[in-house]
């Protein structure tokens, strides 16, 4: 498959890239500051430019799958959050990934797929995580709604807990929540890209 991978240079994106490439897929990477293509998907105009550029690289006239491992949200107490903070969370994680789908419908293969990233805070909120919970919940609802409209194209989301590999940095923010190994999360991406399901939210663990 020809796969467009957004957020390919972060911890998760790097692991997803390696696995998909090992499985024989041709992966075109996208990032704000690194990757084959440099675009900020929080800007709808840059999403348009990204798709136009991707279609012309190495004669990739068909994109079989769009995979996202990107999304930024602020973490603050609710009393410290501003209206702009919530707008930034929506733009940085929700709108950006919705645009990947909305603009990608006419650019992805007839039976191609989209895989988005959400997270555990959609179902297990934490202090300072209201923006992330809002963004993740909105994306999961969008995936279920989009799936009934875009067939035979498919759409799923991967919704992991904190990575085992990131516990040293972020474990204190997720007290009592079981972590998930990065390799397990990567396999959920493989399941979404190579499988046949749609409208699914793969929760991990």
UniProtKB/TrEMBL annotation:
InterPro entries: NAD(P)-bd_dom_sf, SDR_DHRS6-like, SDR_fam. Keywords: Oxidoreductase. The keyword Oxidoreductase applies. GO terms for molecular function: oxidoreductase activity. Pfam families: adh_short_C2. It comes from the Bacteria. Belongs to the short-chain dehydrogenases/reductases (SDR) family. This is Short-chain dehydrogenase.
């Amino acid at each position: 498959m020809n796969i467009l991978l957004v957020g390919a240079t972060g911890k998760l994106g790097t692991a997803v890239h390696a696995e998909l490439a090992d499985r024989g897929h041709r992966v075109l990477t996208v990032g704000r500051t690194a990757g084959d293509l440099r675009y900020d998907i929080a800007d709808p105009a840059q999403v348009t430019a990204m798709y136009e550029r991707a279609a012309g690289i190495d004669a990739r006239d068909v994109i079989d799958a769009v995979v996202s491992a990107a999304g930024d949200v602020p973490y603050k107490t609710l009393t410290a959050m501003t209206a702009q903070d919530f707008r930034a969370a929506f733009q940085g994680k929700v709108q950006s990934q919705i645009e990947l789908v909305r603009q990608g419908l006419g650019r992805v293969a007839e039976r191609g797929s989209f895989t988005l990233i959400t997270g555990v805070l959609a179902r297990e909120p934490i202090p300072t995580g209201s923006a992330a919970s809002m963004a993740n919940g909105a994306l999961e609802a969008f995936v279920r709604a989009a799936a009934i409209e875009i067939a035979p194209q498919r759409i799923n989301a991967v919704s992991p807990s904190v990575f085992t590999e990131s516990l040293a940095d972020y474990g204190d923010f997720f007290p009592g929540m079981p972590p998930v190994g990065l390799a397990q999360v990567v396999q959920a991406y493989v399941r979404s890209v190579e499988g046949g399901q749609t409208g699914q939210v793969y929760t991990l663990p």
